[in-house]
Amino acid sequence: HALAYVRAVLLDEIHLVHGTPRGEQVRWLLKRLDRLREYAHQQSWVKTKSVQKIALSATVPDMEEIAAAYLGNESEIVRVAGSREIEVVRAPGEATKVADAIDLYLSSRAVSEKILVFCNSRKKVDDLSTELRSRLRRWRYKVHAHHGSMAKKFREEVEEDVKKLPKVIVVATSTLEI
């Protein structure tokens, strides 16, 4: 069995699946992989029966719970010092629509910025980015959509624009975070 030779599993952005049905599926798959690796060791296919498991996240509130759920009782938690400031902007005044809030926000700012707007669905991403493109022309911001249904080439172009343009707004699902 090809998976019997797996020596390590890396679970990046573990907070995205923990506590969800997908997270439960990952937990059971890891247990199955452990059993397969143990069988492979008994058959002398591999030298050790262990599989190294690593879970990564910058935003896990309870690391011990994650470690117990996915990595096992003998896991080690490594905390890396440092953080990054993220400014959360609330809608000024009476703005209730996201497009209104962004328009008001830009009118109150004198400097160019890179702005990320996260939505819960691809449809919301597409609708909001289309609305912002037409509404915010006067501010001369480039507005992009970014989600998993877009071709990889287009997503990479958006990511390049974020790196190099001083005035860019990206409306995205969690794909940009990931």
Overview of the molecule:
By secondary structure, this protein is an alpha/beta fold. Helices cover 38% and strands 13% of the residues. The chain has 5 helices and 5 strands. It has a 3-stranded parallel sheet, with helices on both faces. Strands 1-2 form a two-stranded parallel ribbon. Strand 4, helix 5 and strand 5 form a beta-alpha-beta unit. It is elongated and about 70 Å long. The model has no long low-confidence stretch (mean pLDDT 89).
Shape: elongated
Helix/strand order: EHEHHEHEHE
The residue-averaged pLDDT reads: 89
How is the biggest beta sheet arranged?
3 strands, parallel
Strands side by side in the biggest sheet: 3-5-4
**What's the total count of β strands?**
5
Number of helical elements = 5
Return the structural class: alpha/beta
Please tell me how large the radius of gyration is: 22 Å
Low-confidence stretches: none
Strand % is 5-15%
